[in-house]
Amino acid sequence: MSLIPKDPNGCPFLFLAPMEGVGDRSFRKAMASIGGFDAAVKDFLRVPKNAHVKSLATVYEADELAPIPLVAQLMGSDLDLMADMAREIESRGAPRIDLNCGCPSNTVTGRGAGSSLLKEPNFLYQVGKSLVDAVSIPVTIKMRSGFEDTSLFKENLLAAQESGAHYITLHPRTKVDGYGPPARWDLIAEAKSILKIPVVGNGDILTVDNALEMLKHTGCDALMIGRGSVINPFIFHQIRAHFSGKPYHPDWNSVIHYFNVYLADIPPEIPQKTKVNKLKQLMSFMFKANEALLEKRNSILTSQSIDPEEFLHFALPLLRDNYSSFNV
Ligand SMILES: Cc1cc2nc3c(=O)[nH]c(=O)nc-3n(C[C@H](O)[C@H](O)[C@H](O)COP(=O)(O)O)c2cc1C
Question: Residue 186: helix, strand or coil by DSSP?
Fold first, then answer.
């Protein structure tokens, strides 16, 4: 039986994916203002050699999205430091700790962390177990399908399970794939057939149909959505509505509120120009939602505005006029 609950209508548990850079606190708070997801995973907290665990851990605030749980994700490879950090994060009220075995960045993987852990299943097991042994909250593992190829796929899955992880989230691309080729959902189905622990399916869910297809073709226990939620912040509600049978009508005021929450959370000392660039980053996703928006995308990205309000005044009408994805 699955350890990950469904909602009363049978909708699987929905996770907002960690997205370092794009998915910062302002984004998570804006997404929480719309809601529809059950939990969020914070972008990775890197635990480098000689890390000062107590001060590093302060970037994690368990009640950031309260009442929505915020999972902490750790990335590192020093067993003792990772255990210390896990204990510190647990003491800060985290509901769960997730181990990052997917980050493709070379600066990150240099010391054998992130996706590098996929090169050595036995080491992945050791890092996972060091976290499991350190804390009393559940530990989970988020992984890609391999480093260069999928030759160690099964070994890595079993290593994750044997380490005591409660479940895994699978983004079925290798480190070398980056974000290029389509996510291989067949590997999520394979993981389901190999593992006893639940599998959260992730990768390329951009629409409600994609979510339903992933569930049908993989049998996964829950869904995690990253970029699809930046493109369409209502996607979680829309998936849930499919299961409840009650139509969900996104309204434009929620979009305006979303951007207001986003802006309000950016610290005041951040320069206006940087705020505009952050808005552009969000919009660069949203303006991928359909052909009509794609045509306008360049005018958004090349806007010379240095005032966030002025920029929104220019960009929001373009979004509204062309945003058929959520039928506002
Ligand atoms: C900008 C960006 C940053 C990411 N940062 C993280 C991260 O900090 N930790 C992690 O486990 N995955 C990270 N990912 C991977 C996503 O969580 C997710 O696995 C991947 O984007 C596939 O899901 P999607 O197609 O729904 O976006 C990141 C992805 C993107 C696009």
Answer: helix
Tell me the pTM: 0.96
CB 153 within 8 A of CB 145: yes
From ligand 1's centre to the CA of 240, what distance in Å? 22
* pLDDT-wise least confident of 12-26, 87-101, 108-122: 108-122
Q: For ligand 1, which residues put their CB under 6 angstroms from it?
A: 17-22, 43-44, 73, 100, 102-103, 142, 171, 202-205, 225-228
Task: Judge whether 101 counts as a catalytic residue.
Answer: no
Alpha carbon distance 186, 191 (integer Å): 9
Percent composition of the chain: helix, strand, coil (DSSP 3-state, to 5): 45, 15, 40
Taking a C-beta distance cutoff of 8 angstroms, is the pair 303, 314 a contact? yes
- Percent pLDDT > 70 in the chain is 96
